[in-house]
User: Fold this.
Amino acid sequence: MSNDTQPYQDFSARFVIDTLPVHGRIVRLGDSLNTILAAHNYPDEIAHLVSEACALAVLVGSALKFEGRLIMQAQGEGCVRYVVADYDTRGGLRAFCRYDDDELKTLIAANALEFTSLGARALIGKGTFIMTLDPDGQMDRYQGVTPIEGDSLSLCAEHYFAQSE
Assistant:
């Protein structure tokens, strides 16, 4: 991960709108995500889930005020057994998804007339959303776990943060 603004490069930045009570982070994943997806040749539905996991891990991890890792994972009883994205504050990003290909094909066929993409809940099923903060020797490791809530990993993260407040 770098802060280059070249097209297709990885990018993470904080933003503030001075005239409004608005602040946040923006992330663009290019080369690192392309490398992850190319290494595994995932079906589109799985590639989308892995991409969302990576973006989420970078969004949260790039806001950490210490060096270390943010590990975002979801695991469940659906065709996706687990998806994990591991962001290192020094710029590393890794991700992996374990899924049952036959169950995925069955799920896709069953939802063929829905004209919508399959979300996290459909792919993962009943399960857990986990965020792990792993500081480099400065503090103890912290892990928070919540049930899968919502049709995207982003909604799972919103639920996670609402539970931890």
